[in-house]
Amino acid sequence: MGHNYKHINVRRHRSVGATTATAKPTMTDYLSMHSRLTQVGQEHLLKFWHELTTDERADLVRDIEELNLDEIKQYFDRATISMNENGIKLDDRLQPIPEGKLISIARTSSEKLNAYRDEGLQQISNGHVAVLLMAGGQGTRLGFDHPKGMYDVGLQSRKTLFRIQAERILKLEELAQDATGKRGHITWYIMTSEHTVQPTYEYFLANNFFGLKSENVLLFEQGSLPCFEYDGRIILDERHRVARAPDGNGGIYRAMKRQGILDDMQKRGVLYLHAHSVDNILIKVADPVFIGYCVQEKADCAAKVVEKAAPNEAVGVVAIVDGKYQVVEYSEISAKTAEMRNSDGRLTFSAGNICNHFFSAHFLQKIGSSFEQELKLHVAKKKIPFVDNAGKRLTPDKPNGIKIEKFVFDVFEFAEKFVAMEVPRDEEFSALKNADVAGKDCPKTARADLYRLHKKYIEDAGGFVHGEVCEISPFITYAGENLASQVEGKSFTSPVYLRDTRDPLHGHL
Known about the structure:
Oligomer: single chain
Number of helices: 15
Structural class: alpha/beta
């Protein structure tokens, strides 16, 4: 695969009107394409052909060639069936995760958790663990027009999400070496989108991969699917461009197969993968406790969940529908079911999904070779810019078509052995989705959650913290371990920043 997926630098920039991919389109090309498109009811894609320049024709040919025309009709048909099923309540078909398949960190002995952790560290030092980061999104809702992973949340260290996660990986490699005497590497696969791949790559390059070995950081691109009108016709974004949208985080399975990631895992001897989204500032990247639990349970697939804060919290829950595991959206169950409680008073359907998953490499190979084609398709009605009959690009003021997405968790139903781990929300989940004005899931709440956790780490290790602003470098501790020698019996006054010699000289010591 070479050094960091070199093809990133020479990949076809779809946004540039280059004709490198295709020779000048001829009349014969036009006729054969027209006949092919007519068979699938999409011949309108060529309606401006005679007005296009040679370069524009080449762009259009490339866009059409990238569509799998045999699949297109099937995609649309499957998607519209799923659209008509939306709104059907699933209450009668629903069961919670059985006790034996769900472990709660809060209700498990430290001996057991330490045994899982040891197992996870052993797998890391053997080089069997990789991380799959879903980082295709841009920080648009944060008012930030770069990849979300490059966002500086405003910590004292000024570290971005990418940097924090990279440093946690480095620290974990060190912890695994301390525990086993052997240094293993965690491979970091980063799924980007066509718009974020180049800036992400350049950012990692400029920051020297944050101290990680560049050959262990591989970027690959999420796929896209065409946007459709309600009658199944593909929308033209411009006279010479097909309207497309990313195929959702469930697109990772196809992208991993098509872009050689599954082959790369096999070559490197990677057996286990921890997959998560980029925007959780508290993420325990490649968490050895989670990995160890899943390995000992021989799980194909697993999910970390948090206990729902309230019956009406709008999060999907992991549950069983018709005997198969899936994530059930809040809108798919009635209030009555959402409010059901067990004898101990806890919600029956409490396993809140946080996009934090484990997969065995064996399971991913099976998904890639067969189950990917069966993944559910989710439909969203959207306002999609389009070209009118005169060739003018318009942006509609109400939904005029559909975008199709796949979701990462829709493979749960194909797992022979699925387990879940309930983790404390205040230690492992704080999403960054909105600008501060929203007041939730925003930079302010992400900072506060990290500070609160780091203050707890110091206090649990016997130190005292006065005030709220408290940050500890990932180089010092991964999850609160080994702090006593630095903090026991000491008093710290906010703003506190425990820094390592490898940290940039920012903030306070």
